[in-house]
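Example for tutorial group B:
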């Protein structure tokens, strides 16, 4: 059995939400963490405090503040990963948690509806970028046998949610890509899975119109009596990293306390 201790997690979008929760939880299990994030200079003192909290668990923590969706930055990120993680060290998991989509209605009489650029941007950041980085990390032999690739989808890929059309299209594309990557990488024993989390009160969700109403409805809907927490999702990610999960691939795993069993929106 391969121990997760001292292996590496590469986390894109690791300074907030699901990404940061994963960084903290995986570090608590003995893993080293490499974080790619995109934050303003004015927020960096707070971000460094957050990363110091991850370091309290004793593992290595390194990061790069850069736009991982800009192709001109790809070589810089690869170079930073290679200078941080030696070829003899194991990268157990790549977690893609970039949430940078456009929210608006697909048809809107006020002419603020989603346009071509909105769809293109959202598809690029939330689906195509997942594919591109999975390809690069495998081709560069950063991800090797028994590594895991994990992304995040949502209920909106199959259910109509307000202002969610562009993100829903990206998530549906992501779910298809997950299947194709899983089949292609199965001979290498690299698994590819997506987590479909319940409604979680994150910075991304706060951008929703009628955010407070949306949160209240989600609380009423969930039979477990609360919203999904980022830590709930991080624990599921950890389980997928275990050897016992090596036969799970190409799947969408719901982590929501039973929320999506009830259709009340």
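The residue assignment follows.
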């Amino acid at each position: 059995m391969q121990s997760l201790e001292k292996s590496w997690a590469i986390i894109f979008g690791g300074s907030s939400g699901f990404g940061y929760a994963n960084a903290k939880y995986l570090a608590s299990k003995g893993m080293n963490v490499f974080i790619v994030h995109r934050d303003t200079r004015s927020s960096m003192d707070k971000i460094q405090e957050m990363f110091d909290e991850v370091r309290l668990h004793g593992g290595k923590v390194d990061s790069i503040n850069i736009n991982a969706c800009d192709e001109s930055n790809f070589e810089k990120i690869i170079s930073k990963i290679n200078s941080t993680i030696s070829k003899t060290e194991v990268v157990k998991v790549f977690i893609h948690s970039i949430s940078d989509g456009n929210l608006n209605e697909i048809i809107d009489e006020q002419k603020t509806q989603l346009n071509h650029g909105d769809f293109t941007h959202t598809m690029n950041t939330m689906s195509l970028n997942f594919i591109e980085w999975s390809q690069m990390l495998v081709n560069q032999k950063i991800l090797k046998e028994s590594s895991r690739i994990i992304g995040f989808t949502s209920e909106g890929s199959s259910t109509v949610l307000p202002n969610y059309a562009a993100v829903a299209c990206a998530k549906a594309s992501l779910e298809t890509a997950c299947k194709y990557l899983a089949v292609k990488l199965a001979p290498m024993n690299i698994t590819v899975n997506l987590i479909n989390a319940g409604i979680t009160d994150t910075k991304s969700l706060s951008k929703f119109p009628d955010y407070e109403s949306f949160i209240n409805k989600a609380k009423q809907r969930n039979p477990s009596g609360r919203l999904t927490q980022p830590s709930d999702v991080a624990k599921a990610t950890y389980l997928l990293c275990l050897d016992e999960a090596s036969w799970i691939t190409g799947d969408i795993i719901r982590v929501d306390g039973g929320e999506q069993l009830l259709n009340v929106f």
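The mean pLDDT is 94. Compare this with the pattern of hydrophobic and polar residues in the output above.
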